[in-house]
Request: fold
Amino acid sequence: MAYGFPPEEREHRFPPALRAPFEARTWREFAYLLINLPMGIVGFVWTVTMLSVGAGLLVTFIGVPVLVLALGGCRAIGYSERARARSLLRLDIEEPAPAPVKGRGGVLARLGAQLGSGVNWRHVLYCLIHFPWGIFSFVVSVVFTVYGWGLLSYPLWQWVFPAFTHQSGLQIYDNGSSSWYLHTPLDLALCVVVGAGLVLGSPWMIRGMAHVDRMLVSGLLGPSRLAHRVTELESDRGVVVDHAAADLRRIERDLHDGAQARLVALAMDLGLAKEKLLEDPKAGAVMVEEAHGEVKIALQELRDLARGIHPAILTDRGLGPALSALAARCTVPVAVTVDLPARPVPAIEGIAYFTVSELLQNISKHSGASRAAVDVWRVEDRLMMHVSDNGRGGADLSRGSGLAGLAERLDSVDGILAVDSPAGGPTRITTELPWRA
Reply:
């Protein structure tokens, strides 16, 4: 996957069309296009030569290691090309993973892994394609740049021709009977106009060709989409496992410190009440009454704990009633609007419920708002949720708050969390989840 460097934010006095010929980006990309030619020649010659030799020697065992050597050389060229793109095009490309070796990893297994690696053959394809593209980009960039600056500055060096060549100016044509030399004021003005047009236009042509190089490098020299997706899923799985472990620890802590401790105390109180009934029935009845109150409190704590795991109303009636019940317990008045044609899968429904629950808790604790709103709807295959309040604002994902953890949990299921919370409010948080019906 490719990552671009953040652009520099500056205030400019001149429009981009006038700045482009003098910007560092233009000259970095021009240097990249110049180096395209020698790099293209090296890559093409190596690839064609080694693949031809290896294919010709396949009748013997020597051909296999020669082909592997050819692929290794293409990988080395790819490494240098990624470094060049990183330096001059400001394009950061992840290094592709090495070819996986099946079995015990013997010599034959390693050779087979290299020959069967799609990443290696994409490097080969890059070396073959980049050669003609390198010639084209080199010639076009050099011609337009040199002619542009040369014509623009022609009045400054036109004196060279009469001084050293005994000509009045640069010769455009000569057919024997007539000739045209650039030396009159009109000729000089024409050169300046044409040169200025080329100077102003060539940076955009250079940037367009550099963009083609970016696509070649990111498409052929980076990790495949499948490999990137596997890495992303492995990362998401780690996030899910960590959050599941944290939830289990929270449930264990709540049981140990809450209902379990209360039930232990209740058992002791009932034992004392049992002994007291024989000696003082009235005092024993009071103790039983107190124990009855403790039972009610313990049951309420267990209900709250069960609701925190998965609320029954969500299972029985769906997201709309569950969010309405959630809003009713919020300390801030919340308007809930749910417009769903059907119910999403239970896993997504649960994530949506707990996402809104955490956002409403944040509103109650930190926002200072007097009202809030929750809107839920479906757009194609995405479940959309929008939570807003009129509080003080200032919520920020980058501060390592609960919102950052919430964003990680949503990302683990291909969800998105976007926060718009300027200082002074209001706060608007939009989330997307896959429908997966």
